[in-house]
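Hypothesis: this fold can be encoded by more than one sequence.
Test: take the structure tokens below, design a sequence, compare later.
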């Protein structure tokens, strides 16, 4: 199963409205995907889950929501215009292009063993701002979401009560013209990142770096089921960018091996210094207690939302043999991320009292929960469908409900059913 897990998850995503290839009726476009009716609910829950963990529960992290297009100088200052590139080699036999780390001496497509020398391609997407000739300027879709945080640093200091150490968090789109988008939503050209930049005094970098490294691993352990599939990867010292003292990735074990999920980066004072230089503005910070003036140093945590989403699907996909010999596909996804908290089924759709009672329960639950209605087909089929999209509970309203105001609640993972009083339903599904 491990080998074809990615294909199974890709097929399930299409079949059940989780993720679709973008522009499919035109033949698709490599590296772009849409989230369907089920997927968008899951993705919103996933982003809320991160926001709760990183912002809501902390007194010293605030959020922003920045634009995708910024002043073009940003990308000069950040180094992306000159240095943000992908190194690619081409197979001489089938002419497919690969990243050198993906080939292992052999072409993954045709088995060829001869490759061209590596070439570099800049990954920034270019666009134009303005419509009149002579007034148009070249601009770029942001190649990483975090730049807005540096641009807004001074505004946040001046407009909030935060003092160093504190963090700024953001979830937002980033765009990279990847030469080799691949593995479903693992490497795409348009994706979302969840970033947090933590601003500290230079002497406190080590302490906060270690703190965030552990916090971020704790976050992923809370999210995924299979903790053995998580590890830290430490970047070798000789591969670090010049301003970094250390860098770690949190990796997830995918069917194609360990893969990066998130980076914890030592950015030092590089970003604020660069933007200070290129903008001519003073981005230093003055400590209110000591009057010390300095450029804050930064610990960054930067992960991919779509990539986490894909790893979650891989982490939760199961095929189980049932007692009657049938197979069921079940997504044992974290209950906080599942698209729906529960599905509501009237046992039959031709008995008005049952349907109407079921509607009342749907209305009651949907006050505080995202629930889904299904009255199509037999109950077994409805269970199979909800299992495939990971709905934690299925609630069936039947003849007994009319007698004693109880319903059956069926658990996704154990498949056990129990009768629950309608008044207790809210707590039973939360
Ligand atoms: N600001 C730092 C930064 O952008 P990165 O390691 O280039 O660091 C952070 O990106 C995360 O964004 C990665 O760990 C990965 O999860 C996600 N990511 C990067 N490129 C991606 C792509 N082409 N498709 C999907 N996710 C991507």
């Amino acid at each position: 199963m491990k080998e074809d897990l990615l294909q199974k998850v890709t097929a399930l995503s299409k079949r059940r409205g989780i993720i679709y290839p973008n522009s499919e009726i035109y033949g698709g476009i490599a590296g772009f995907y849409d989230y369907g009716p089920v997927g968008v609910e899951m993705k919103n829950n996933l982003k809320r889950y991160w926001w709760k963990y990183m912002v809501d529960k902390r007194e010293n992290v605030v959020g922003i929501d920045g634009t995708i297009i910024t002043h073009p100088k940003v990308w000069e200052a950040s180094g992306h215009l000159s240095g943000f590139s992908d190194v690619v080699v081409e197979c001489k036999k089938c002419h497919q292009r690969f990243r050198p780390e993906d080939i292992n001496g052999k072409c993954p497509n045709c088995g060829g063993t001869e490759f061209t020398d590596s070439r570099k391609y800049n990954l920034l997407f270019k666009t134009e701002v303005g419509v009149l000739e002579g007034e148009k300027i070249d601009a770029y879709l942001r190649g990483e979401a975090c730049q807005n945080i540096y641009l807004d640093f001074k505004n946040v200091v001046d407009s909030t009560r935060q003092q160093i150490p504190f963090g700024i968090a953001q979830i937002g789109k980033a765009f990279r013209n990847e030469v080799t988008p691949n593995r479903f939503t693992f490497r795409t050209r348009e994706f979302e990142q969840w970033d947090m930049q933590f601003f500290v005094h230079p002497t406190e970098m080590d302490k906060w770096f270690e703190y965030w490294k552990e916090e971020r691993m704790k976050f992923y352990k809370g999210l995924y089921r299979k903790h053995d599939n998580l590890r830290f990867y430490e970047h070798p010292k000789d591969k670090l960018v010049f301003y970094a003292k250390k860098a770690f990735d949190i990796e997830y074990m995918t069917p194609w091996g360990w893969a990066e999920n998130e980076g914890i980066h030592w950015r030092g004072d590089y970003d604020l210094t660069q933007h200070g230089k290129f903008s001519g503005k003073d981005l230093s910070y003055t400590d209110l207690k000591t009057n010390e003036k300095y450029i804050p140093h930064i610990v960054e945590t930067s992960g991919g939302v779509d990539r986490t989403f894909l790893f979650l699907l891989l982490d939760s996909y199961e095929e189980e043999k049932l007692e009657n010999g049938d197979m069921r596909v079940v997504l044992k996804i974290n209950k906080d991320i599942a698209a729906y908290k529960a599905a509501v089924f009237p046992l039959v759709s031709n008995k008005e009292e049952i349907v109407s009672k079921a509607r009342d329960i749907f209305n009651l639950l949907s006050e505080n929960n995202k629930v889904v209605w299904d009255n199509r087909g037999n109950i077994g089929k409805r269970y199979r469908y909800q299992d495939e999209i990971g709905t934690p509970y299925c609630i069936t309203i039947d003849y007994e409900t009319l007698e004693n105001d109880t319903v059956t609640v069926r658990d996704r993972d154990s498949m056990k059913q129990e009768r629950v009083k309608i008044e207790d339903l809210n707590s039973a599904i939360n």
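The mean pLDDT is 96. The pocket of glycyl-adenosine-5'-phosphate is lined by residues 144, 146, 176, 178, 187-188, 191, 193, 260-263, 300, 302-304, 306-307 (CB under 6 Å).
Hypothesis status: open.
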